[in-house]
């Protein structure tokens, strides 16, 4: 039996809506968050994940590569990834160059996570057609891989092209190229073209592993990087009463953009919990749930949580990060290690 050795990380969208908790500007917000990430590494957090959107009033991360570079400069061991970059909006050669540079700067600690996107105004602004998302994603991935290899071979696709020129410098450590998806056809594509699967809310792990089997690959080869929508606190209901409006804002913004399809917005934070959009755990429950998750799906290589919610104070998120690092992660690892030892004894 494959035993999970998952890493644990933080997820950032760098949203800073008007009327935020501490009246901060973006410069102060970025600096405080970079301080938080460096501190999180020092207490045992393994990874950090950045996401991307454009033209959002709250400043939702438009430049994840620049932030990744700053994070790489402030950290030494933390893995840095995108979950995710909307790759159809990008020139794939530029995407490959920026990713290669990040890999070189960080000693191979960078992973490129991509997805096809969904928000129509972004596609219109970047002169892309929403209907072309699948081919833009797939051809872009092919071009990125060719660029990373140093190949001078040209590519002429339905949407994109690469000239007969090599891209330099190439990465010394080829980044993982991960693909995120939620709809079945997109999950099938992720299984076919990605080095791993970026999931959200743990809802599609079985679909991804089933897709691998249909493609003739064993489920054991699956690699899942699992984004969590979970609040872990000593008193999670009390914490939710304090921060639930920030979660309500976050989810409703995604609904407004069409991330989850044509679904109605929520009106109260507790509706998010009732619907399963967010889960509330105390540390003991978190240990139980994460141990079960990683035991049942050992293909999960990373589990990451929102560091803080849009408009919430950075220090407020830091309290939950410290709880995760000091009470939850060590207990999960100890329990999994103990189970592995028992299995070895009985093998």
UniProtKB/TrEMBL annotation:
All residue ranges annotated as the Luciferase-like domain in the record: 8-249
Transmembrane annotation, as ranges: none
InterPro entries on file: Bact_Lucif_Oxidored, Luciferase-like_dom, Luciferase-like_sf
GO molecular function, one term: oxidoreductase activity, acting on paired donors, with incorporation or reduction of molecular oxygen
GO CC annotations on file: cytosol
Pfam families: Bac_luciferase (PF00296)
PANTHER family xref list: LUCIFERASE-LIKE MONOOXYGENASE
Full protein name: LLM class flavin-dependent oxidoreductase
UniProt organism field: Gordonia jinghuaiqii
